[in-house]
Amino acid sequence: MNIQQNISLKEYNTFGIDVDAKRFISVTSLKDLKQVIKSEQNIFLISGGSNILLTKNIEQLVVHLNLTGISVDNENENFAHITVSAGENWHNFVLWCISRGYGGIENLSLIPGNVGTCPIQNIGAYGVEVKDVITHVHTIEKATGKEVVFTAEQCEFGYRNSIFKNRAKDKYIVIAVRFKLTKNNHKLTTSYGAIETLLKERNINTPSITDISDAVIHIRKSKLPDPKKIGNSGSFFKNPIITINHFNQLQKKHPNIPSYKVSDTEIKVPAGWLIEKCGFKGMKIGNCGVHEKQALVLVNYGNSSGKEIYELALKIKNTVHQQFSINLEMEVNII
Ligand code: EPU
C-alpha cells in the first residue's frame, strides 16, 4: 500500500479548497480498504468530495475511496438490478444508464459526487430522490471490518438524510450501492416547473429518459456553477421546514414567499429565496461569495480558504434567523 505524505486535497474537493493531508492513500480494492481500516484507528474518508467544506489540514490518514465497477446483477423485461461501486462518478453512472435505456435516475443528472455518497444524504432533484431506486447499500463496518448490507428500509431515508448521517454516522464505509431501474414503462417525473417548461419549449410531448436528462442538464447548467470552473458544493443549506403558523405569519409580510407542503402542519420554504431576500445573492466577499443565479450555492472564486466560506455561511445563517426566525441547517459537512 502506497501512503503518500503531505498531499494537497485541492483536487479532491469540489470547493477546490487547498488544504493538506499529512498522509494520503488512494484505495482501489476492497482488500486494501480492509487492510487500511485494520491498521489505522482513525481515518478520514474522501470520495467525490462534493459535500464537504475543508477548513483545516487533515491530521488523520486520508483514504480516497477509489473503488470502481458497475455490474448488472440480473434483469428481466421490465427491471434491471445494478450494483455500482462507491467510487464511480455519479453523473457518469446516470449517463451509462441512459445510454442503455435504464430509467429512474434521469432527473438526477449532473449532480456532482460519487455513487457511494448518494445514499448518505439521499441526493434529490426535480421531484426525484435516489431512495426511490436504491434497494441495498453495501458497507464495511469500520470497527470490525465486516461487510454489512443495509436494505433501503434500514437506511431510514429522509429529505437529504439517512441513517448514515444519524445513528450510523462514521460507523460504516459505503462500498457499493444496488439499484432497481426500469427498462420499460419508465415512471417519468416531469411535473417540476422548469422541466415542464423546457420540454414544452422543445415541443416534446412524450419525453424519453434522454429528453428528461437533457432538460435537467440544461436547467442545472443555466443555474448552477460548474465546480471545475468555480468551486462549489451545490446547495450549501437544506430547505428549512417550518410550521404552518410560522409560515402564515411570514406570508402576511411576504405574499410571494414560495413553499411546498410537507404535511398538514409543516411547510418547506426554499432557503435560496430566504437568502436572496436578505440581499446575499451575487454578493462577493473576499475570495468567496454567493452564486449570482442561485443563492443556495456558495462559491470559491479562486483562493478562498474553507474558513472564509464557513464565516460567510454563518453570516447568512444569522441574518436569515434575524429576519425570518428560521434556523438554516447546513447540508454540507464542515470539516
Ligand atoms: N429561489 C429564489 N432565489 C434563489 C434560489 C431559489 O428565490 O436564489 C426560489 C426559486 O424562485 C423557486 C424556489 O426558490 O421558487 C426553489 O428554487 P429551485 O427550484 O432552484 O430549487 P431549490 O429549492 O433552491 C432544490 C435542491 C437542489 C435541486 C433543486 C431542484 C435542496 C437543498 N436543494 O433547490 O439540489 O437541484 O431543488 O430540484 O433541496 C443540491 O443539493 O446540491 C442541489 C442543487
Task: Briefly say what this structure is.
The protein is α+β, with helices and mostly antiparallel strands and 335 residues long. It is built from seven helices and 20 strands. 40% of the residues are buried.
Strand percent estimate: 25-35%
Query: Which of globular, elongated, flat, extended, rod-shaped describes the shape?
Result: globular
Secondary-structure element sequence? EEHEEEEEHEEEEEHHEEHEEHEEEHE
Ligand kinds: uridine-diphosphate-2(N-acetylglucosaminyl) butyric acid
Question: N- to C-terminal separation?
Answer: 26 Å
**Roughly how many Å is the radius of gyration?**
20 Å
Helix content: 10-25%
Summed over residues and divided by their number, the pLDDT gives a mean of 95
Counted beta strands: 20
Tally of separate helices: 7
Report low-confidence residues grouped into runs of 5 or more.
Answer: none
Alpha-beta content class: alpha+beta
The largest pleated sheet is described as:
5 strands, antiparallel
Describe the structure.
- This protein is α+β, with helices and mostly antiparallel strands and 335 residues long.
- The chain has helices at 30-39, 90-100, 193-201, 209-223, 244-253, 271-277, 306-324, and strands at residues 4-8, 20-27, 43-46, 52-53, 58-65, 70-75, 79-85, 124-125, 128-129, 134-141, 147-151, 172-182, 231-235, 241-243, 260-261, 266-268, 284-285, 288-290, 297-300, 333-334.
- The longest helix is centred in the last third of the chain and has 19 residues, at 306-324.
- The model has no long low-confidence stretch (mean pLDDT 95).
- Bound molecules: uridine-diphosphate-2(N-acetylglucosaminyl) butyric acid (EPU).
- Residues 125-126, 224, 234-235, 238-239, 258, 270, 272-273, 276, 281, 294-296, 331 line the site of uridine-diphosphate-2(N-acetylglucosaminyl) butyric acid (EPU).
- Residues 125-126, 224, 234-235, 238-239, 258, 270, 272-273, 276, 281, 294-296, 331 line the site of uridine-diphosphate-2(N-acetylglucosaminyl) butyric acid.
